[in-house]
Amino acid sequence: ERGPVFVSVFSPLSLVITAILGSIFLDETLHLG
What we know:
Elements: H1 2-32
Protein name: EamA domain-containing protein
Keywords: Membrane, Transmembrane, Transmembrane helix
């Protein structure tokens, strides 16, 4: 039963991390370009 719980917790967490990394990456590219 660890799988579904881990996924339900990891999914939104990964979305937040991806959004933060994406915003940082886009911010860097905007400064470079």
